[in-house]
Amino acid sequence: MSTAPEGLPSTIWHWIGGDLVDAADGRTFDVTDPVSNTVYTQAARGTRDDVQRAVEAARAAFPGWSGISNRERARVLYRVADAVEARHDRLARFESYDSGLPITQAKGQARRAAENFRYFADVIVALGEEAFRQGEEQFSYVVRTPVGVAGLITPWNTPFMLESWKLAPALAAGCTLVLKPAEWTPLSASLWPEIFAEAGVPAGVVNIVHGIGEEAGQALVDHPDVPLISFTGSTDTGRHIIRSSAEHLKTTSMELGGKSPVVVFADADIEAALDSVVFGVFSLNGERCTAGSRVLVERPLYEEFTRRLAERAERVEVGLPSDPATEVGALVHTEHYERVLNYVEIGTKEARLVAGGVRPDHLTEGNYLQPTVFADVSRDARIFQEEIFGPVVAVAPFDDEAEAIELANATQFGLAAYIWTSDLKRGHRIAHAVESGMVWINSHNVRDLRTPFGGVKASGVGREGGAHSIDFYTESKIVHVALGEVHTPRFGAAS
User: pTM for this structure?
Assistant: First the structure.
């Protein structure tokens, strides 16, 4: 049985205009932990009225926040980072308890959240604007201005870090915002109000409305005074948000689903590739958008690699999220757990189960699944084509480079890809041919915050990360100035 961390709130409130407030109609929803699946708190259940209050507060705060210098905003973001780090242990315990992430991995997310604020503080201070000169006749320069009230809708996997990934650039750019955290994991978001207050973020700059996606999230998407929406989540929900946003021609950034391939050639460093595959698909409980959940192995290496992958999967330590020895914890929610188990059942009819697929014997309750490996998976199998978002991996062989590319591109998704080969010329060829927004060659999922993040096809629309994030949260205006005499054709000047 998991032990609840100290300081759990009895109710998780909205934060609007600098105040913790109840839902307008007083309703709440239950929040459960994934180890016992029992209710441990309630959260305010937001509606259109709550979103309206939050947007009004954000609009009122916008002139003041957008009007200060980039340097002043950066100072505030540095203080936010310090406040996050000061709550490092508490934040990690909250995140692990609420989401089922192993505590060691939750601590890593807390550190990354603080780094996001420091990084975007640096970006906004250093970011320049373009200027163009047309000989001696004209000079043109770009003015960058914040868009306005940003709507941020965040997912339930690594929630606090992914909230910071959107909050930091929106604030750095000068936007005010309304955040709608995922309803399954609202606990760590309850720390934001005290963090922002301690850092001196003015009231109304950040507003948080909890609630169900179809209610609070939809109200945020529909609001005419929210000109842009940044969303991370499922492809189906992303499609719905884009359709809804068309009414008001909103700018959208969609980081959606993935079914990322790992292409392993026979000349690869097998140990490094194996480590990367195991960590890439089973860390964060397999609930990560960039997970390498399709492993394509060149046929001479296929049997050995599949056998060793299965052996490693069986040895992965599954246990209580609060145990530092745990490598895979409890899946986030009963609804998602049942979905993943359903895919395991489908997989047993489509392919050869070589590891896992069952609840570990020592864990009689909670949303636990032994890391699962399916071999000999055909390209038409559902477990090859559809995002499972759990500790489940599909393995298939290929015979040559052309087939590797074909199989890698054989799904609707295109978020990430991983290539393992000692032939770097081939690695680059594959990287250029694979349809994905991000590719790693002989590397696991290590990211530089300066680089663009996003996918192609059904994996998303747009890019965030580094200057790309600032581009999303700002509008660019070009100003043209004549430097010499103006020689405009004189229409209608003839006498």
Answer: 0.95
